[in-house]
Design a protein that fits this description.
Radius of gyration of chain A: 20 Å
CATH architecture of the largest domain in chain A: Orthogonal Bundle
Number of domains of chain A: 2
Structural class of chain A: mainly alpha
Largest sheet of chain A: none
Order of helices and strands of chain A: HHHHHHHHH
Largest interface: A-B, 37 and 37 residues
CATH class of the largest domain in chain A: Mainly Alpha
Helix content of chain A: over 70%
Oligomer: homodimer
CATH topology of the largest domain in chain A: Tetracycline Repressor, domain 2
Number of helices of chain A: 9
Chain lengths: 199, 199
């Protein structure tokens, strides 16, 4: 048996782990969550099924980690939002980027698949909240807090509510496909939130 | 063969139809969308499977109609919102009732099941928009339009956006189970929408 703790085998393990997570995301985009199988992930990643089962107990667990890895590579818990001192300009930038992501089929397909699972699975919903949503929300709230200190947002504004007003309309419009996802839409959401929570 | 157009057989048909739709909603609440079968619906409704297939081509179609019937019995296309002349009071009443519905397990379970399907099914999403959401949204927009005429909402407010700001935060909080669904929360959403869209 090789010793898993030697530098070479660690590197090899990490490479396999990344290949598995990438294959998982690619397959979800191509065939949808329900049709993804451990067999297909293993074939696509060029590893054996037993390699996957060594690290993850189930298909759901691999899929969840494939999203978590995406968020980590985008900054993970160290994520920060732009702070030019102008909350309106900074929020427009962030919201336009977010709207563009949800309008991008390559990005939105796996997120849609994850949402379909979350709706009926309270445990997965809790994991999603804690591991994926909360670190990002905390970063957003840090930026909103600095706007409160600068007198650009009401000092008593409930920051969870501010985030809901910014993001929930976009989320619902995307999930139910009820309207266009455009830069103008992103700007409208920023205007609404700033009007609703101005000092 | 009995003549389906005699009054007696029409009444019998309508009774069977209602029994099937009620059985469908009950089973979705109890076992979840995916485990509901045409066999189980037929057994619960006390009809034969062929009676179901005479009226509906698929499980999805019965389930969709079971929701549509719910909305019709609640007022359907003839739905109107209270109009006391005070948009704040009227919206509080409506939003508190909506929040209470989403906090009620008996109500929210079938809606959750429907949402899980809608996420990955653009055709069902379109049916949902046209047949279920639009008539209700039109009624809400009629009430908002009367508030615009009374000078209580900005004359140029985009009413689809007003509805998104009122309902999307509640929808996301409910779907992702991210916070409590209370009367105070309903009131906050009304306050936010009225501040964001005041004249």
């Amino acid at each position: 048996m090789p010793n898993d703790r030697t530098p070479d085998s660690s590197r090899r393990s990490e490479r396999s782990r990344q290949a598995i997570l990438e294959a998982t995301r690619a397959l979800i985009s191509e065939v949808g969550y329900r049709k993804v199988s451990i067999e297909a992930i293993a074939a696509r990643a060029g590893v054996g099924k037993q390699t996957i089962y060594r690290w993850w107990p189930s298909k759901g667990a691999v899929i969840f980690d494939s999203f978590l890895a995406l968020s980590e590579s985008a900054g993970g818990e160290g994520i920060t939002l732009p702070d030019t001192g102008d909350i309106e300009a900074d929020l427009r930038l962030v919201m336009r980027a977010t709207v563009a992501e949800f309008a991008d089929p390559a990005f939105e397909k796996p997120i849609r698949a994850l949402n379909a699972e979350i709706v009926n699975d309270p445990d997965l919903a809790a994991q999603y909240r804690e591991k994926l949503a909360r670190p990002v929300d905390d970063a957003k709230k840090a930026r909103l807090r600095s706007a409160q200190q600068a007198g650009q947002l009401a000092a008593d504004a409930d920051l969870d509510l501010v985030l809901e007003v910014l993001y929930a309309p976009l989320f619902q419009r995307w999930l139910h496909r009820t309207g266009p996802l455009t830069p103008e839409y992103a700007d409208s959401l920023v205007d609404i939130a700033l009007r609703a929570f101005r000092p």
